[in-house]
């Protein structure tokens, strides 16, 4: 790459960031980091009506939680700020005016009612009304008025917008890093509004102007913006600017059936579609998030990276650093990527195994504290080590290992029936004697002593080991019994066996 790339993630703060948006941010981030580039966050908040409070904060928190922070953006001013379009308001009109002066745009005075009437008349004839070369010569705009008339109307404060003048009949050759070459006939394009009556630019104008002013080299965004590509290229040409390169990412599709992944799919099938929990400020409803549901950011990032891309080799488990090294924009897929909640859990399970145990210890300690259980980090670390192999989430550690912290107060009935026989109490009393004598009290020593006694006694292994487990755990689950006994300690092991003998 001749120039260090500058890429931007440019969300509109109209609600929380969907995981599709996080994936767009991630691909921008990976591309930037791989090529020594800069990752920019730009808040596209020109549409005041759709503005939802606290979403900018949500977006920033989400990127930070995922470990993909931006280099320039709100609160991290670089040389190209401000990074909120609402704070750049005064920049845009001059650019719209420039296009008017060059004949690439025009003032349109048509009222909403007049346009509605056109739409209805077209509909009645089975046609669709498009404001472009077909009819712009018959509508109420500066193309059909003298310069004096236009000035008079503007001076008189008449409501108007500024529209782009699309070429009537031209074949545009477009290219996209992911999709390759495309052709578009300009005859089907409409003359999009660039500047609105409320004095604000539309998305199209502000987006192109800012990408130019911020020296963006690559625009990496969702497929839903592909239909705007022709207009955007035409705008660059009209301004006489070099256009950045474009890459339109594939859509994220529903797990089953057709169509784009929606919030509803998540609700129906019980998985989050947002990185963080979102409390809607208006309706006070909550939507679940990956963070609060116990996912590790590494797992979410890995899963998202693979929604639309893979390295072309068997390897699936990637750290962020490895993704940066292997990610290539030109091998991103064209077709939609099916979201798979089970695969997401699988990524989580894999990353939980890889995670630094101190992260699991801290998370598990929090869960214990919520339950009023005080335990040393050292002890919790020991338990984590014994249990993590079977866990998907940190919370699973409690479900599968609560007995490391509390004595069982009841026993699995089925297991009791099957295991606890008439002579079991007696056998367990013997085991208590051995436990009492075992020194040092660790899993190895205990295992050796108990096994030796079993062999000498002529009893079956299960006849001893199963009630031993039942006494300590209350059920037939968990890791190695000797490890459990060694962890909870001699005193508690004896206490639990004695309690089982008394109550069973
Ligand atoms: N503001 C647009 C959005 O909300 C940005 C599209 C683009 O990246 O050009 O997605």
Folded structure, characterized:
By secondary structure, this protein is mainly alpha-helical. It has five domains: 6-73 and 206-252, 3-Layer(aba) Sandwich (Rossmann fold); 91-202, Glutamyl-tRNA Synthetase, domain 3 (Alpha-Beta Complex); 263-353, Orthogonal Bundle (Glutamyl-tRNA Synthetase, domain 2); 356-401, Helicase, Ruva Protein, domain 3, CATH 1.10.8; 413-503, Arc Repressor Mutant, subunit A (Orthogonal Bundle), CATH 1.10.10.350. The chain has helices at 19-34, 55-66, 89-101, 112-124, 147-155, 203-213, 229-239, 263-269, 297-305, 320-326, 341-354, 357-370, 377-387, 394-401, 413-419, 424-437, 443-457, 461-473, 481-488, 490-503; strands at residues 6-9, 38-41, 105-108, 161-164, 171-176, 180-185, 193-195, 218-222, 245-249, 252-253, 278-279, 286-287, 337-338. A three-stranded antiparallel beta sheet has the order 3-4-7. Helix 12 crosses helix 13 (377-387), helix 12 crosses helix 14 (394-401) and helix 16 packs antiparallel against helix 20 (490-503). The longest helix is centred in the N-terminal third of the chain and has 16 residues, at 19-34. It is elongated, with a radius of gyration of 33 Å. The N and C termini lie far apart (74 Å). Bound molecules: glutamic acid.
């Amino acid at each position: 790459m001749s120039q260090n790339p500058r890429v931007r993630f440019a969300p509109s703060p109209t609600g929380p960031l969907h995981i599709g948006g996080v994936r767009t941010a991630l691909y921008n981030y990976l591309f930037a980091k791989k090529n020594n580039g800069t990752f920019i966050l730009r808040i596209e908040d020109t549409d005041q009506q759709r503005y939802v409070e606290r979403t900018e904060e949500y977006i920033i928190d989400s990127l930070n939680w995922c470990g993909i922070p931006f280099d320039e953006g709100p609160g991290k001013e670089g040389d190209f700020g401000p990074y909120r379009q609402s704070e750049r308001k005064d920049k845009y009109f001059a650019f719209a005016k420039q296009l008017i002066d060059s004949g690439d745009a025009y003032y349109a005075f048509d009222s909403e009612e007049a346009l509605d009437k056109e739409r209805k008349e077209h509909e009645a004839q089975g046609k669709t009304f498009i404001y472009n070369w077909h009819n712009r010569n018959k509508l109420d705009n500066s193309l059909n008025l003298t310069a004096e008339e236009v000035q008079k109307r503007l001076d008189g404060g008449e409501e108007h917008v500024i529209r782009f003048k699309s070429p009537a009949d031209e074949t545009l050759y477009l290219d996209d890093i992911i999709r390759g070459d495309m052709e578009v006939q300009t005859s089907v394009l409409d003359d999009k509004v660039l500047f609105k009556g409320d004095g604000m630019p539309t998305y199209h104008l502000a987006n192109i102007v800012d990408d130019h002013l911020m020296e963006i080299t690559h625009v990496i965004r969702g497929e839903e913006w592909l239909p705007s590509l022709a207009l955007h290229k035409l705008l660059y040409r009209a301004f006489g600017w070099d256009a950045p390169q474009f890459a339109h990412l594939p859509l994220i599709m529903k797990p089953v059936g057709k169509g784009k992944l929606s919030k509803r799919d998540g609700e129906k099938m019980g998985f989050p579609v947002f990185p963080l929990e979102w409390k809607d400020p208006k309706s006070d409803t909550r939507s679940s998030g990956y963070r609060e549901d116990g996912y590790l950011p590494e797992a979410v990032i890995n899963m998202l990276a693979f929604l639309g891309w893979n390295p072309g080799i068997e390897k699936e488990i990637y750290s962020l650093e490895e993704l940066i090294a292997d990610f290539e924009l030109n091998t991103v897929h064209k077709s939609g990527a099916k979201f798979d909640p089970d695969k997401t859990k699988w990524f989580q399970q894999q990353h939980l195994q890889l995670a630094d145990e101190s992260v699991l210890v801290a998370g598990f300690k929090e869960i214990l504290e919520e339950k009023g259980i005080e335990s040393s980090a050292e002890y919790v670390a020991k338990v984590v080590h014994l249990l993590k192999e079977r866990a998907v989430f940190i919370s699973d550690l409690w479900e599968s290992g609560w007995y490391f912290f509390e004595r069982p107060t009841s026993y699995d009935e089925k297991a009791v029936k099957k295991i606890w026989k008439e002579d079991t109490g007696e056998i367990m009393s013997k085991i208590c004697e051995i436990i009492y004598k075992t020194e040092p009290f660790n899993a190895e020593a205990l295992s050796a002593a108990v096994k030796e006694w079993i062999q000498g006694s002529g009893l079956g292994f299960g006849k001893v080991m199963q009630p031993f487990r039942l006494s300590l755990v209350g059920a037939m689950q968990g890791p190695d019994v000797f490890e459990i006994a060694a962890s909870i300690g001699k005193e508690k092991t004896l206490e639990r066996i004695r309690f089982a003998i008394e109550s069973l």
